[in-house]
Structure prediction request, 407 residues.
Amino acid sequence: MLDPGQILVGLEIGTSKICVAVGEVAESGELTITGFGQARSRGVLKGEVIDLDKAAEDVREALAQAEDMADVEIEAVYLAVSGNHIRALNNRGVHSIPTVDREITVDDVQEALRNAKGNNCPAGYEIVDSVRQDFCVDYHSVYDNPVGIVGSRIEASVHVIQGSSRRIEMSRRAVEGPTPVRVEKAVFSGLASALAVLTSEQKDLGALVLDVGGGTTEFALFQKGLLRHSGVLAVGGDHVSNDLSLGLDIPLSLAEELKISLGSAVSEPGERATFHTIPGTQGLPERRISLSHLRRIMSLRWEETLEFVARELAETQWLRQARAGVFLCGGSARTQGLDALVRRVFQLPVARGQVQNVSGPTEVLENPEFATAIGLVRYGAMRSERRPRRWSFPLLGVLSPRLRRKN
Ligand SMILES: Nc1ncnc2c1ncn2[C@@H]1O[C@H](COP(=O)(O)OP(=O)(O)OP(=O)(O)O)[C@@H](O)[C@H]1O
Ligand SMILES: [Mg+2]
Prediction:
């Protein structure tokens, strides 16, 4: 059960914008977004803080806006982390039960999970999130709760998301340095976005969430209710704008504008004869650019990005089984034709990810850019659940550092 009256705050220091969502848990357990703040982002490149002073200033601005709107003083936040340094892997850990054929206890399971979690963490890296997957008892698969089963060997598999401690520290300092605000926990932004837009049914059926932002594309793949694979590609909508700027020989600001007003992730043959006139600016003469050329540049970049993600996921058995389909969020999810391209590359149904089971201002909930911040609020709520609905923890065990006992 969620803790009524609790205030939870999510903060994303994105490449294009900083945003803060303040959420409150109602008596019914429903989450309501009561405050929201958004600021420009000047100190972030490809999802990583590179200019601490500028990032800190922008974070302060977004926090102040959210505090005003929610009429609260923010003390702690769940902080999204992303970037090229994020590594995700599926680890296994084994725990042998010393006494022959006794029932498996919570402590045994915890030990197996700990062993799985701690494997393969290189120096300078830390565990950002770890999500339990399946168990085997004496080499037999046990999907759910292995406690109480008689056995002598328990094997746990865990999806582990690691990140560079230095990179995470930079994000943390942008929050904690100049403000009295504490980072409650760093959370992988792809996981947060997935928590915002997927229902339990979709996670059970199998679903992929793609958060296509400004400097990164994060992905999180669920099957049978559990996170099976995730990751980040440090490529997003800003790279598309950059390609347009170079390919059409126009300033970056104009490229960004044209991407939004005329762009598409797919190019159609009929566009060949369509031209668009750009007025002369910054000493440059008026020019005509071909719509087909503009869209071709965009489609090449998006196709390459999506194929990279699809290749990585194809190595798992789970992608083809994602029967609920692909859910798109992040600002670049607004790109015309991106859904069609995703459908073609992944060969799965595609939809815009909608925030699920959260109330609040429509303009916040319906904005694909805000899925991460809202998902962080949900993450916080799940993590601080006082009593689990059931002992086993598809996702929760993961979110809570402790394994909870059966009531
Ligand atoms: N209508 C639109 N069409 C195409 N792209 C758009 C549109 N609106 C916004 N974008 C793009 O969305 C991107 C910003 O998305 P978002 O706010 O999700 O990024 P971010 O969270 O700040 O960055 P990241 O998560 O990658 O660090 C920019 O590249 C912007 O150009
Ligand atoms: Mg983002």
